[in-house]
Design a protein that fits this description.
Blueprint (H helix, E strand, L loop, with lengths): L11 H4 L1 H9 L7 E5 L8 E7 L2 E7 L5 E5 L13 E3 L3 E2 L6 E2 L5 E3 L18 E7 L2 E5 L7 H4 L3 H8 L6 E11 L3 H8 L5 H4 L1 H6 L7 E5 L2 E7 L19 E7 L3 E6 L3 E11 L2 E11 L5 H29 L21 H18 L1
Antiparallel strand pairs: 1-10, 2-3, 2-5, 3-4, 4-9, 6-7, 7-8, 9-10, 11-17, 12-13, 13-14, 14-15, 15-16, 16-17
Length: 363
């Protein structure tokens, strides 16, 4: 007897503002999220602020060299502490000048010594779980969340074999790419290559060898593997001197970040930043040694934007429109038991995580 078909998620998962609101308060606030790169915080007192799950946060490097993340709110009367990025000896609230050490502990405040029983040692900015993953700063608003290596088993060690020089890499450029679609539509598109041959001729003939392409889950990581195609016709010299220089590989870290390594050990990243139920901004990062100008990396970034990125924008925006059609009935996923490039088994896993993220809030 044949097993029942697995159908794609109902359209409401991608179009309903209420589901998006649940994701903000639940999924976004309880998973590991990209904040920035350590090179943004080279010196003691360097900081930058960012938004996550409806919260304003900031990362800062302490005198002990440690990078910490705090909710961007004074413990006195809730004014935001910092804006943008910069450098500071201490963190001073602009409302009443309450002053905090770089560790978040209260240092001083006007006239606080006149208050009987005031104990400044009991007051500290609220800290957020922070991990440094190969030079990338990730945070999790859930203080009890498992470590990244538990969420994404083997991803760190595998990436190190593709990026043995990771400690020298810094951003060469970050590009914001707006897409008029739900963030999950864009993530799903990234996480299968069933559409590649028809829609990405440059990628599917000039980079990957489609018949070897596969995507498999590793915990909450989707691991993309493939042999490369026509390396003798690559537009740049892939002989980096490192292992795996003749391979392409990708690690998607649920729910919104991916490391991608092109032949020649060229690192680029995706970070999905949802705006609302119908819009997302994809931050595409490209990296070079020391962030120095690099003709090869720039050339690959341009080629990527002019081919795969532009091709994908048209696809995901058309899907978002289709999801709002009364004529759409979720069809069965093409789940090949043998996996491979023409199978949507990776989407099966993704949609299971997506469904669990929403039902967890319902229970």
């Amino acid at each position: 007897m044949n097993a029942p078909l697995t159908r794609s998620l109902d359209a409401r998962y991608y179009t309903d503002p209420a589901i998006y609101a649940d994701e903000v308060q639940g999924l976004f606030a309880s998973t590991w999220q990209f904040a920035g790169h350590v090179s943004q915080l080279d010196d003691t007192g360097d900081y930058f602020s960012f938004d996550l799950a409806g919260e304003s946060l900031f990362c800062i490097r302490g005198r002990d060299g440690q990078i910490r993340t705090f909710y961007n709110v004074c413990q006195h009367r809730a004014h935001q502490m910092v804006q943008g990025s910069g450098n500071t000896r201490v963190v001073v609230c602009p409302y009443h000048a309450w002053t905090y050490e770089l560790t978040g502990h209260l240092r001083a405040g006007p006239n606080i010594n006149a208050v009987p029983g005031f104990d400044k040692s009991r007051i500290c900015l609220t800290e957020v779980r922070t991990e440094i993953f190969l030079g990338f700063i990730f945070v999790n608003l859930d203080p009890d969340a498992a470590a990244m290596d538990d969420w994404f088993p083997d991803a760190r060690t595998e990436l190190e074999t593709f990026l043995p020089h990771w400690a020298t890499l810094e951003p060469l450029e970050w590009v914001e790419i707006p897409e008029n679609c739900n963030w999950k539509v864009s993530v799903e598109n990234y996480s299968e290559c069933y559409h590649c041959a028809l829609n990405h001729p440059t990628f599917s003939t000039g980079v990957i060898k489609p018949e070897t392409y596969d995507i498999q889950p590793q915990g909450y990581c989707l691991r993309h593997t493939t042999e490369c195609n026509a390396l003798d016709r690559m537009s740049y010299d892939i002989n980096s001197g490192f292992e795996n220089n003749d391979r392409y590989s990708s690690w998607f870290l649920w729910p919104m970040f991916s490391f991608q390594v092109y032949p020649g050990n060229l690192l680029n990243t995706y970070h999905w930043r949802p705006v609302d139920a119908d819009n997302v901004v994809v931050w595409r990062g490209w990296y070079s040694v020391g962030g120095a100008e690099n003709e090869t990396v720039r050339g690959m970034a341009v080629q990527d934007r002019e081919t795969t990125v532009e091709e994908d924008i048209r696809l995901v925006e058309s899907v978002q429109k289709g999801l709002k059609s009364r004529g759409y009935v979720p069809g069965p996923l093409v789940v090949d038991p043998g996996c491979g490039v023409s199978s949507e088994h990776s989407i099966l896993h993704l949609q299971r995580w997506m469904r669990e993220a929403v039902t967890a809030r319902d229970n």
